[in-house]
Amino acid sequence: MRRNEEGLSLLRSLIRIDTSNPPGNEEAAVQFIEAWLKKEGITSKIFSPAPRRGNLLARLKGKKAGEPIVLLGHIDVVPADETGWTEGPFSAAVKDGYLYGRGAVDMKSDVAAQILAFAALKREGITPERDIILLVTGDEEAGGEMGVGYMLEKVDELSDAAFVLSEGGSIIEEEGVLHAQVSIGEKKLCQFMIRAHGTGGHGSMPHRDNANDKVVRAANRIIGHNWPIRRNKIATRYLTGILKGKKFKGFTFSTLSNALRRKHFRSFVENNVVYNALLRNTVALTILKGGVKVNVIPPESEASFDARILPEEQHELFLAQVQKVAGKDVEVVPIDRGESIPSRYDTEFFRAIRRAVKSRKGNIPVLPFITTGATDLRYFRQIGITAYGFSPIALSHAEMLSMHSIDERISLEGFAEGLDATCDLVKDLAALSTTD
Q1: What's the gap between Cα 429 and its chain centre?
Q2: Cα-flanking dihedrals φ and ψ of residue 388, to 5°?
């Protein structure tokens, strides 16, 4: 069977296994992968942190022990309501050159590509310089504690990894420039809620101590606040790589610092959701809670926000600023936070990615990138392991935007090309004998 046919068959099988998280149910998927690997003569082990939850680890022994290379992919997906889907979210339907299904982009396509690349080493009799570990985990969409967090506790060798490759970047076109995003870090998670107390009562007799009123007014101030644009090293390198020489109203882009002095360019940044998120703290109102009955004024109300702050920001200072903006009628309560420790990108691993990209796409920019959301790679970066988010599967804007949305899909042509590129990249990684 040709590689792309085999890869498509594997991906469709994975999508048809509903691993929506919550509740997860990754066990069925990792059992399927275990059986698939067994047919290739590869032994794997399943680690179960809870009933019906599962993670899988397989290993190809290298010439020397220690400091393995880890191919990391999560098998859980966000839930999918069938409403609005052209094809069922777990049908794995193929239509008009696309494969539809929850996980087609995030990230069962990458898992399938990594599995095939891992198996290709075995089939071709390649002994890697160091162990190559295939790590398929669950729970990424809910924080990863029962996935990567659990596996780091159970398998000591993972903490000794030389390099981890997972999701976070891709080959994409921005502003007419085809380029490769290689995620070397991510913004800090700083989720919080605001809570207000008031006087309950009958809705027919409104008063000025309504908890809902307080939360709505404070929420409006928070979402209306204009967080300042701030340059950082990684975003500067990335944006310069794709915008240099581009003509804007009244000037040609040369440096980010000069461009940001222009009102027109700042407006351009604010209207691009990716660029905007790379250069400033972002706050999104995601949950509103208040009231139990339409004619009852509630005594308590709250609203939750998903905030992602720049790597150099401090959580405490950011939350103090939120409290100042929100005002005295509400209390700002932290929900969850995460650190950001970017990986170096002057490494043999980054150069291997560059070689893989250029062999397929020619002399396109290969640029360091900051992921605006959180991935499982943060677990490894926090313990000093070089970890990059990159998939050589090229995605259009429509495909990228379908992630976590209706009609999540990936083009058959892009997936087939990405399979070959992933195999080339993994072979290159397997041949590396030194680390920087």
Answers
A1: 22
A2: -120, 145
Dmax (CA) for the chain in angstroms is: 79
Band (435; pLDDT cuts 50, 70, 90): low
Considering 27, 76, 141, 417, which one is annotated as catalytic?
76
Q: What's the pLDDT tens digit per position in 106-165?
A: 999 999 999 999 999 999 999 999 999 999 999 999 999 999 999 999 999 999 999 999
On the 0-12 / 13-18 / 19+ scale of CB atoms within 10 A, 66 is: exposed
Q: Tell me, yes or no, if 157 is annotated catalytic.
A: no
Dihedral, CA of residue 118, residue 119, residue 122 and residue 125, to nearest 10: -90
Which domains, and CATH codes, for the chain? 3-184+342-430 (3.40.630.10), 186-337 (3.30.70.360)
Cα 246 to Cα 231, 341, 366, 396: the distances in Å are: 19, 31, 18, 21
Do the beta carbons of residue 315 and residue 391 sit within 8 Å? Answer: no
Please choose, from the candidates 36, 7, 57, 77, the residue with its C-alpha nearest in 3D space to the C-alpha of residue 408.
Answer: 77
Instruction: Count the Cβ atoms, other than its own, within 10 Å of residue 116.
Output: 23
Residues 30 and 75: beta-carbon distance below 8 Å: yes
Q: Which string of DSSP letters, residue by residue, matches 30-63?
A: HHHHHHHHHHTT--EEEE-SSTT--EEEEEE--S
| H or E stretch at 182 | strand 177-186
Residue 140 catalytic? yes
Single out the catalytic residue among 26, 27, 34, 140. Answer: 140
Entry pTM = 0.92
Q: What is the CA radius of gyration of the chain?
A: 23
